[in-house]
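Table S7 (text form). Paired inputs.
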Amino acid sequence: MLQSQKNLRGILMMVLAMACFVFNDTLVKLARVTLEAGQILVIRGIVALVLLMIWLRASGMMRRLGDAAHPKLLARGGIEATIAMSFITALGVMPLADITAILMAAPLIITALSMVLFGEQIGWRRWSAVMVGFGGMLLVVRPGGTGIPLLALVLAIYSVIGVGLRDLLTRRIPMDIPSVVIALTSTLGTLLGGLILVIATGIWRPFGMAEMLYAAGAAAFVILGNLAMIEACRDVELSVVSPFRYVVIVWAVLLGILVFGEWPAPIALLGIALIGASGLYTLHRERIRHREELRAPAPDRG
């Protein structure tokens, strides 16, 4: 498969992953009215773990559980745990718009790391598209810029760096390891992060069937989102695929309107337009690259 075709597959999987994660966030927000953040991570993690084990058994891949002990999978699960703890902790003491703006710097970090670590060629057009997308993100979230506690800022910055490291590490995982096994280690990592938060805070509130249903639905979307994210990051150029993370705002706006009745401000619509333009231009550049690869002469094997 040509690299441009692999990148297109990664882009589609990234868009799907972002939709799943926003559905998860919507259900978590509904459950958050009653439950603490760490408690939600634990309940969701247990349900997700059960669903994944059922999946493994039904697909006859229980014999692949040993792959979960692969050093790169263990490292990825550890990164997931620290991301969960850092993000939830920072979210509790800083505005959502501010931390969202910081997290949306992930494509920029991944682009830079891809160039430094893997030698990917990043042209000025793709750099410009990423910057335009990030500018659109700032218009959508409109961070307040008010005083942010230093600890929260450090944790938020670590979260975005952790996301970049996680996705870069995903790219280096052997292709013969099933994505569902990688998702299993991711689930175990976030579950561990939730347990650490619960132990640290010492809070466990009673909950009913509604909260369980929210958590179960969130678990299902997290699994699908993780699987799509894993596929989006495997054997692709992350500097091309990562900008499509920005589509998360489009999904968030749609669900905000449908579920919570939250209509975006005009300036937010401008930001969404910039995000869409950035993604479409990146896809346009991929089509050009695809045509160039097809036109390239075959190597002389004589």
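Next pair, protein 2 of 2.
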Amino acid sequence: MFFYLSKIAYFFIQPSNVLVALVVLGGVMSLRPRFRVWGRRLALLGAFGFLVCGFSPAANFLMLPLEERFSRPERLGSYDGVIILGGAVDTVITGARGDTALTLSGERLTIAARLARALPGASIIHTGGQGVIISGQTTESEGAARLFADFGIDENRIILEDESRNTWENAVLTKKIVDPQPGQTWLLVTSAYHMPRSMGVFEAAGWTGVTPYPVDYRTRGAIDRTLGFNGASKGLRRFDLAFKEWVGMTVYWMTGRSSAWFPGPDTAG
């Protein structure tokens, strides 16, 4: 139930959807003399929101704290496994076309080739089923397995979890399959903006010995606070993405699915 409620609720609060609704509603109201003033105000508010989210560094201000919260380890030591979170495979297109189609978060998967070579003794674990309300013809892990084979990773090293639909289920269901033992260490791979929530969730789910390995950066760094002006579509997409993470962290923390509201090196164990 949590999965479906979260998907439906976010559709209605997603900033780009709200801004479109304001412009459309304002336009309709302005056709009636009685509501013309308020209609124009709503339409202008929506248009102003588009300008701010699309062309200003506003999206970067939301994204940068997320991406800079965790950094990669300076050196890769010895790990028992590399855990790669889903979100990189478009299950709808993959199922229809019969070949792995990657999303904008594709680096979550492509980094596996490098890590598999750097950590020859580590298991390569992918966790991800279908994170959409209407199921497709395949799962993310099936698409990931095809790429891992293309990378030349030994299938005996690969562990697939193909039922999870969100970050909480990633952590819980993978824990059941892997059964991590005290003293074991794990490298957690996901998008940099998603790493704070992921680390908090894995700790709340009982994982220990987890080291973050963020990938898929969307900003260049601090310079984007002042010079990071985006085009309309890119800015809105980035604003939606960062907004979703802040909301997600808050909801996960309030429902006990995260160890902290804004997990970081000083809060995640």
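The longest strand covers residues 186-191.
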